[in-house]
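Protein modeling request. Please complete all fields; requests missing the sequence field cannot be processed.
Requester role: graduate student
Desired output: 3D structure, token encoding
Chains: 1
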Amino acid sequence: MNMRPSRRRGGPPAGPPAGPPAGPSASSPRSASDRGGRGGRGAASAPRGTCWLYGQHAVQAALENPARKLRQLLVTAEAQETLAARLEGGFPIQPVRTERGALDTLCGPDAVHQGMALLVDVLTPPDLDTVLEQPGPVLVLDQVTDPRNIGAILRSAAAFGAVAVVMQDRNAPEETGTLARAASGALEIVPLIRVVNLSRVLDALKSRGLWVVGLDAGGGVLDGASFHQRRVALVLGAEGAGLRRLTREHCDEIAGLAMDSRMESLNVSNAAAVALYEMFRHR
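Delivered output (283 residues):
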């Protein structure tokens, strides 16, 4: 995030086709090149409108989310025992035993799947009016595209009481196992809302009483205490580029983070965490 923050010196998609759950069998999973669709190179692909989630926190959170439509759960023997001990109501879907090597092939050699993968329908997000019925800040991402960053931002949003993360649809990555794993379960907690026009959304948030603060250079230091009586929408720009001109113009104010002068900027997900904490500690 090219923020150059203020510093203190010295200091609804289409569902999958009808029929049995899609995905590899427990004994002979298809290779990445055979699966088709998005992903490739061993990344988990899935029928349109679905995605593979993997890793303990992402899978458990999805299994416990009544809004999730579950398709297929692949687990090793050890992972099944782990999940069984953590799921209070038992398995909402019948697990299918598989081998770790099969999951390596499905999820990719670098994926930390922890012996489990879950095929689910992509979540249908609520509309903005429904989200705003709950108290808490809103995060708006201006062309942030890295799924790991977005997942980490969702995790911070859940930790510090944000009610939604809003993104422009044409620049937003799809819901994937990579994003869900980085979110560590927060994808099931904080809605990820995709919109066509970000500037219109900022105006809509203002009309609903939110104060829109862009995190970028050129403003004062973000001070959560000053927003004690106001509900805030925090707007963060992409790595390197920062906020676009039109996005900046639709903010009520621009503010940076208090940082040591020896550092110019933070990764966008770290900046989101610091800004959300600053707001949270003054609630």
